[in-house]
Here is the input.
Amino acid sequence: MSIASDGALLQVEGLSVTFRSRDGDINALRDVSFGMAAGESLGVVGESGSGKSLTSAAIMGLLPANAVVSGSIRFMGRELLGAKESELRDLRGRRMSIISQNALTALNPVHTVGAQIIEAIRVHDDRPSRRELRDRALALLDLVGIPQPSSRIDNYPHEFSGGMRQRALIAMSVANEPDLIIADEPTTALDVTVQAQILDVLARIQERTRSSLMLITHDLGVVAGVADRVVVMYSGSIAEQADVDDLFHQTAHPYTRGLLACLPRLDARDRSTSLYRIPGFQPSPSDRPDGCTFHPRCDVAKPGLCDVDAPLLIEVGAGHIARCHLAVRHHPRPDGSDQ
Amino acid sequence: MSALLEVRDLVKEYPVRRGLLRREIGSVKAVNGVSLTLERGRTLGLVGETGCGKSTVGRCLVRLVEPTSGAVYLDGENLTEMSGRDLRAARRRIQLVFQDPYASLDPRQSVGAIIAEPLHLHHLERGNEQARIANLLDLVGLSQSVRDQYPHELSGGQRQRVGIARALALEPEVIVLDEPVSALDVSIQAGVLNLLEELQQRLDLAYLFISHDLSVVRHVSHEVAVMYLGRIVERVDADRLYSSPKHPYTKAMLSAVPVPDPRIERSRQRIVLEGDLPSPLDLPGGCAFRSRCWKQTDRCAIGPSLIDEQGHAVACHHPELE
Amino acid sequence: MNEVQPQTSATIRTRSTFWRRFTRHRMAVLGAVILTLLAAACFGATLVAPYPRDQQDLLLGPVAPSAEHWLGTDELGRDYLTEILYAGQVSMLLAISVALIATSIGVLIGAVAGYRGGWIDDLFMRVTDLFLVVPAIALLALALQGLGHSPLAIIIVLSLIGWTYIARVVRGQVLSLREREFIDAARVIGATDRQVLVRHVLPNLGGVIAVNVALAVAGTIIIESTLSFLGFGIQPPESSWGNMLSQASGLIGTPKVYLLYFPGLFILVTVLAVNFVGDGLRDALDPRSTASSASSRGYS
Here is the structure.
């Protein structure tokens, strides 16, 4: 696997997003590049303001009107940036779909859940009969684990619990068996036991439809369990990108290391002393420091280097890149193999 | 010797009204007989999922919510029977830090005014107020320059520190922390957790730490109580809860928490619970968890009571073996 | 409601940023300047007005605007500008008094009803419903018939009718403010209901109140004109912009129709200026309106 596996499905190259505002331009996303192979699960991790949701909005073509986009987004061989709205509309929902975190507002309260799923199918396929559509909706509800779908299909969203609404939303998103599912914080508002159910459903769907999953989250634990590969974002750019095992066990970027160290762990041996704390906070896009954007918070930053030169992405191992002058290179694995 | 804070058989019922005339058709027990004790300098974690009643317990303790029955003793004095002047005085001793540091700060007050407010209300530190504010800002690790700023000008972590400083202004002995870090980014969360721990050691504070995040609770708590649908189903010291949970619900919940390590994740056995939380209006009789429990038998039709064995209390007919 | 607020450095700073925010609002500054000039001219009419009040020049009769009489004269040969300035005293006093009294009553009742809820709120809602179903103009006419047409009577009657609107708005705002967590936070640190209202609820209503005072000023001027038109307002020889307007209404279709325009113009300019000032106050009272350029909420 090469860096940014050659994007058989999706290839994002040099993606930048700038917002025009009265107070000047805000470079919200800067030179983001990554690829996704078919069937792959990519985790995109970052804190709020890192640009992770913006990346998915750019791919779906759902950026606000005052955003200026540059770079390239190739999906199944087609360039999406600059494509006609009608072309994008055709792709959205059929070839790629998004599951957002807000299951309550994403469903229309005045239509039944069944009607909304049927609508999602019909937008891209108006041939099936009513009987057929209803059967497909029932099968989808069953797939996402809603018990007794036939008695639930005519319920309204408010009659569903939070977890069930999220499932209904997933059913709508996968109604047309898309090739790429973008899940934007799909479990953030949910309890752990419900999160486990939802992640289970996503895994089942992926297995069945062979679709690729782009999971956007702030939760490194969820990423560890779901993703094959991980992109870590910080302040609008990619800080590190690696296979999931390398990211957690051969961590190259000080920011990723900090994120891992500051997490309280369920599997800690005892009530440990104090957590590592990344000092300061993420700079706002209009006020980024010179040099490496992370250097004011970094505990290994070198004066004269990190506060002056912006680092480039460097390769630290096979399929593993990090944007850091002092990135830690791979050490050979104990068994001698390095993929 | 009695504990610093003792909660006995706390019940909070909400009436359920329906229809045009808003007739009362029944009631929901958000908290259904909760008992807790908390010692000085200790942290009790109260965990559970949405709707289990953990926040209502916290709000009953500071009398933001009036409990239907039960008692809250602070140093032997019953808070639930107090009113007027006594209640105002008692409020100084037990404070609450809210989950959402933005919503819980008045957008029209500067940080200085927010921290000064409890001092004004209780006529404290007259003439010495500025020094006390400076000292509180120091205590929570904020620079003096934020004093004239407004909440919207601060980051999430800074806001939560302002909320903590406001609670500390009255020099309380007990602080109820209602999901104090769940609105914060992970890199910010660690700083606030460390601060809380540091303050506890310095000021000998007792914390009731309410959270849905089992990893965070594990990190901060000495003892943990697990709530499910208004009741405590398990209560034990933190290490034992995590190494050998006895209640099936605790076990399922712990197994569902992701661990940030892909190798461990791959080898973990996850218990995925069937179905949803039953509606509080329509609870199964007996054990409330039995509709989702893989161990349920006929015995579970009769609700188990919380039985303490060697400091490990569990409410289950079929507990896991230690 | 006269809680003594300790003067901390924070409240002083609030005052200076208040002016900075207000002065950034250009139309509001313009409105304030115009209002100040108008008020100064009206209330200082004895010094400013080109002619003494009620000085008739029957030989001159009505003339068109000229260098001597900028706005012309009326049938009795009185200088129209002088008349308008003196009439402005009555109109402005009336409008400002009614706006302040009605808003104070409305804010107090609305805030208590919204904050306390229960039977107080029910009672309040029924009373305002009553005001909504009874036609205000008829009520006004009836009341003024009984009380006479003095400015004081008009102020009392308009205030008693005018408070319901702002009370409803305030009640709605308070209902949603009451659910905000910072209100709970204030109660936890020991604030009484009254302290919560004074320290947290009312300051957060500042914008709404400012806008409503402005609307009430404008509304009162217009209602007073309507009443004068119907013969229930200020009666001659006392004059107001409203009754000047109604007296001039007989001139429609004659060459002297401009006598209708001038009081109308003064009403229009005053109403607009008050509205701009209200907008400016609303923004100036909200600390978030100066959100620094660094703020970048809205996308992640």
